[in-house]
Amino acid sequence: MTGRRVARVVMIVFGVLAVLFGLALLAGGGALVWAQNEKTDSEGFFTTHAHHFASPANAIVSKSLDVGTDRIFGSGRYAKVRIRATSSSRKPIFVGIGRKEEVASYLAGAHYAEVRDIDLRPFSVEYRDHAGGAPVTPPAQQRFWVASAHGSGTQTVTWGVRRGTWSAVAMNADGSAPVAVDATLGAKISFLGWIAAGLLITGGVSVLGGGGLIYLGARKPAPLAAAAAGEAVAPVAAGVAPGYPVAVEGRLDEPLSRWLWIVKFLLVIPHVVVLAILWIAFVVLTVLAFFAILFTGRYPRGLFDFLVGVGRWGNRVAAYAFVLVTDEYPPFRLAP
To answer: For 48-67, what is each residue's pLDDT tens digit?
Structure first.
């Protein structure tokens, strides 16, 4: 296979990989756009269904949230968490978020239930019980909470995520036991739209670039250009008019080796690897050819030659390794 043909195959292979990568990015960006439009509420929060949390303790404490950096969340500007809770016993409730060590200090010696694990289907909560009594003071009197709400009815706490280790707490407003609340958790990432836009733009550029590589690799050079490049132009046999009907000539390739067939399937492994990529390109270009024929009424010659070449290459490999009608090792090329 000449250097020009190698370059064309390489362009097609990388073009197909770029198209597939771009399609994956476009799918991811489209999924983010769909999720942001269809799965968020009027305030832009992704919200869970209401779930029931109950314990005979004086407080329910969430698993800790460890945020190691402000670079992503921008000290609360780019990501927010929202908790909405309603008392199941109609008592005034308290909901707050604070640093883990300060929450632990406040609840030291108090009876509280720490959430250890949550199963969503079906919903169930596993608690770790910490024995003790009632807290010394009601939770609303503490000043370490970074976000809190208390009172009757539904209480909403919205907090901008920032660096630190944090815990969320649900209690009765007077610190009494037991605690029973129905709560929903919401999350909002303000730069999600930028991520979606970046994926869509990058995916589009990748698809266009890959399509260009495929086109350049599949385009058949003009006869003069091919001759100038040192490639032989196949002559037309004397007395045979090009076109239809097609004359087919078969030749029995013999004698065949009695033992080579045992290892042929190993010898064609390099072909199988290359063909696996080429057949991906075959599928993509077949779709492109369909739309080209639909809108222009003609089959682009470059696409046609490439698809025929892939089929020709695959048939040569099959004839050598699986149909066993020849011992001539197939060349790495799309041409006849």
So the answer is: 989 999 999 999 999 888 88
What do you get for the CA distance between the two ends of the chain, in Å? 11
Q: Which residues contact 84 (CB under 8 A, 6 or more apart)?
A: 154, 155, 156, 157, 183, 184, 186
Between 6-20, 95-109, 297-311, the lowest mean confidence (pLDDT) is in 6-20
